[in-house]
Design brief:
By secondary structure, this protein is α+β, with helices and mostly antiparallel strands. Helix content is about 30%, strand content about 40%. The protein has 4 helices and 7 strands, in the order ααββαβββββα.
Length: about 140
């Protein structure tokens, strides 16, 4: 797999900012990383349409019950388009439940886009979810 220092630095910065927003339960910081028309799938939502829907139906419920979120950097794989304006990443992640005892693990797919190589990345699609057999899934519903 790709090592963290082999990944395009601007994508590493995006992923680090995303993980920090989750750890801080900072919905506004998370919003700044996404396009308004972003779509997503997640552990507790089958589909969301638009950033507001994603925040209300997925992030609000999950982030408040998440501690110590981070990516498994050895698992991160990024596919960057030739013009460097689109990227798709997939990775494993881990966190702890709010009680601080239960390890949560899952996987993520992230699609990023930007208008120019000087512009910030904006996420247009995510799929973050715990492993299907995770007992914590029921706690979040």
């Amino acid at each position: 797999m790709t090592k963290k220092n082999d990944i395009e630095p601007s994508i590493v910065n995006w992923l680090e900012a995303w993980a920090a927003a989750i750890r801080a339960n900072d919905l506004d910081a998370g919003r700044r990383l996404f396009a308004d028309d972003a779509a997503g799938f997640g552990t507790i939502t089958h589909r969301t349409d638009g950033l507001n829907d994603l925040v209300e139906r997925q992030w609000t419920r999950v982030w408040a019950n998440t501690v110590d979120y981070d990516f498994d950097w050895d698992s991160v794989c990024v596919h960057l388009s030739g013009d460097e304006l689109q990227a798709a990443a997939h990775a494993l992640w881990a966190s702890t439940g709010k009680d601080g005892e239960r390890l949560r693990e899952g996987r993520a797919t992230i699609v990023l886009t930007r208008a120019s190589t000087d512009a910030d990345w904006k996420c247009v699609h995510t799929h973050f979810s715990m492993w299907p057999n995770s007992a914590d899934i029921q706690l979040l519903k």
